[in-house]
Specification:
Elements lengths: L9 H25 L36 H74 L45 E7 L3 H16 L3 E8 L7 E4 L5 H11 L4 E4 L11 E5 L4
Parallel strand pairs: 1-2, 1-5, 3-4
Antiparallel strand pairs: 3-5
Helix pairs in contact: 1-2
Organism: Dankookia rubra
Pfam families: LytR_C
Protein name: LytR/CpsA/Psr regulator C-terminal domain-containing protein
Length: 281
């Protein structure tokens, strides 16, 4: 297996540079210590002449003194420079350690801020999801509430009351041509199936629902296409005596069908009339 490549950090490079400087200085010191001491200049040879007899009288003369050795002085100077370099290296190391500590502290603070932002974002997303669910629930409840005419607002003090609206024409009497208001024959409820106009899926679902109801013994005189439909599958009744028939109709259709009380709807169709509303999906 291949070994992963090592990553050179700033601290590693500084330490390597310091070690190189210390090694160079040590090499200079060792080289100066191994240098041979300077020798006295050789005396020039004497001119040839008659050899003088050696002196045998008098005390022996001491040998000439050796020149002073400058190696110790140079070594002490080098040691002084080395000590100064060591102090400079220690100062640089202390400064580097302080820089590394400050950088680590800054990274920790930045990570803490990022973690706090992440938690705040998660909380905001959770609140947004809750609001969306509440909006969907409110829309469903609003679709289930029957539409009623708004009550007139009371007049403001000091202003003239608004003119009374013109009376609405009386609703048409139920006839054989209006099956939605005609009572069912023999006590059997009449079921009108509604789907959204222009929706192929809604028309297909309405056709399937009509077949199921006819097989169950319900009378389905008409399947109607309307401009808008609620977002859920509902069965509506308009009179208190039709509540049991609406429950039986919803049970026949299966699970997922809601029953809506439309007794306050105006104008109300005749007794024994039920409506089935099929959504687009």
């Amino acid at each position: 297996m291949l070994r992963p490549q090592r990553r050179w950090t700033f601290r590693t490079l500084v330490l390597a540079l310091i070690l190189c400087m210390v090694g160079a200085i040590g090499g200079i010191v060792v080289g100066l210590g191994l240098r041979p001491p300077p020798t006295a200049p050789s005396e020039p040879p004497l001119a040839a002449g008659p050899a003088s007899p050696p002196r045998t009288t008098g005390p022996a003369q001491p040998p000439p003194e050796a020149p002073p050795d400058r190696t110790a002085a140079e070594a002490s100077a080098v040691e002084g420079r080395l000590a100064a370099l060591r102090r400079a290296v220690e100062q640089e190391q202390a400064r580097l350690d302080a820089l590394i500590r400050s950088r680590v502290t800054a990274e920790a603070e930045q990570q803490a801020r990022l973690d706090a932002l992440g938690r705040a974002r998660a909380t905001a997303e959770a609140q947004l999801a809750t609001l969306q669910r509440d909006i969907v629930s409110a829309q469903r409840e609003l679709a289930a509430v029957p539409r009623r005419e708004a009550a007139p607002l009371p007049p403001i003090a000091g202003t003239a009351p608004p003119a009374a609206p013109a009376p609405a024409p009386p609703p048409a009497r139920p006839t054989r041509e209006t099956p939605a208001t005609a009572p069912a024959a023999g006590g059997q409820p009449r079921v009108f199936v509604h789907h959204r106009a222009g929706s192929a899926a809604g028309a297909e679902a309405a056709s399937a629902v009509s077949g199921t109801l006819r097989d169950g013994g319900f009378e389905v005189p008409e399947v109607r296409a309307v401009p808008a439909v609620p977002s859920q599958r509902v069965v509506r009744y308009f009179h208190a005596e039709d509540a049991a028939a609406a429950a039986r109709l919803a049970g026949r259709l299966g699970r997922g069908w809601a029953i809506q009380d439309f007794r306050g709807y105006e104008p109300s169709p005749g007794s024994g009339t039920l409506e089935v509303w099929v959504p687009d999906r």
